[in-house]
Amino acid sequence: MVGGGQGAYIGNIHRLASRLDGQWQLVAGAFDVDPRRSREFAIGQGLDPSRSYGSYQDLISGEVGRADRVDAVAICTPNYTHYPIARALIEAGFDVICEKPLTATLEDAVALEKLARASGRFVGVTYTYSGYPMVHEARVRVARGEIGTIRSVQVEYPLEWMATAIEQKGNAQAAWRTDPKKNGRGGSIGDIGTHAYHLAGFVTGLKLDALTADLATFVEGRALDDNAHVMMRYQGGARGLLWSSQVALGNSNGVRLRVFGSSGSFQWFQEQPNELIYAPLEGRVQIIKRGADDLSEDAKVRSRTPPGHPEGYLEAFANLYAGFAEAIRAQKENREPGAVGRNVPLAYDGLKGVAFVEAVVDSAEATIQPWIRPVVV
Q: Residue 68, exposed/middle/buried by CB under 10 A (0-12, 13-18, 19+)?
């Protein structure tokens, strides 16, 4: 692992999730920009001192010649460092698991995806919400045509944790997320809007054609948006609405997806992740529950407990790690991956996410805005 040391929220999530199914073992790491803190943290995690590195460069040089070298490296650092770290790892022959967004700029995302394809290295991106069993169930059922032709998609990701200027009061996680040099051009749209965008496309299979966006910065002094509204037009005619916000009071992690078709709809809410709401054109609204016998294989292989025993965020994240492990094994063995290794987010998905953010910011910054003032009679 690179990054994710003391005080880093996402690093511990990666460590917990990777271990859940016994597919991965953490054996080496460079966890902090300060070499001393990095080594101390690594040793505190139980790592061999000889594999407790002071920098990612030291990790590469220390691991590349080992007979028991690491199988993959997870990148859990701020956005602007993803590209140089991932590039160096790929060029040294390592497979990569990278936090989203893939990079801070579109130019870097294009270059990294091209490098991944040319090298044959595996690059997985942790779009967490595509790890939930009922998200996969919705994907399978949409593909079967159970709700007909998709007409409208609504997806949202509201948070409240940055409703005040906590970055000015020593919150390190907020500080880099509000710094354009470290987070990229998008604030909320880059940090959480990319999750929402990927979730909508993952479930529906729709491809974005065009968008128009309105970005707002409600907390005074911020350089990046903390609220985004995006109207989307998909290829084939479907319409979409996306909302991401870091200042939505009363919302802890309110990821919600609604897909409306010509003969039915599906709704999934992350805070009730074990249920998928299905409303057919003619018939009663149904609640489809995780763990049921008649679910798809894609949902079943991502479930661990019987119905009524909730599974949530850590399990979804663990499903990504289980999928990455299977995909890497299948690639090495020159075979098709099993069900859990299919449909995992890869470098191209990360590239699409960065392209989406760039398009949103470009739209919001355009000099001609498509706003029409209504005539008051």
A: exposed
User: Residue 78's closest CA among 159, 194, 177?
Assistant: 177
pLDDT tens per residue across span 322-373? 999 999 999 999 999 999 999 999 999 999 999 999 999 999 998 666 666 6
Question: To the nearest 10°, the Cα dihedral for 143, 314, 247, 105?
Answer: -70
**How does pLDDT run across 21-80, given as a tens digit for each residue?**
999 999 999 999 999 999 999 999 999 999 999 999 999 999 999 999 999 999 999 999
State the Cα–Cα distance between residues 16 and 34, nearest whole angstrom.
23
Q: Please, are residues 278 and 266 in contact by the beta-carbon 8 Å criterion?
A: yes
